[in-house]
Amino acid sequence: DCGVPSAFNEAPKCEYCTMCCNAKNDCYPTEDTSVEKHLGLNYGSFAAVFFAVLILICGGAALFFGTSTTPSERRPEENDTYALSRIGK
Prior knowledge:
mainly alpha; rod-shaped; two-stranded antiparallel ribbon
């Protein structure tokens, strides 16, 4: 009974068990997940790294693509000049 919920106050720790069951008779293998095997991270750490990288990519994209000015971002006097130049005055 090394799973949760446990029949005991504190679930027993079993380092060398190949199968872990809980008080509801749900069992699962205690082998490493594919994320742990390939990256050496548990799911919580993997999620934190994934979202940190995602935020960095989005921030970099915003800085890279957000530097140009469009006609709607011009100052009012520039808009007037731009509008007059477009109608030929």
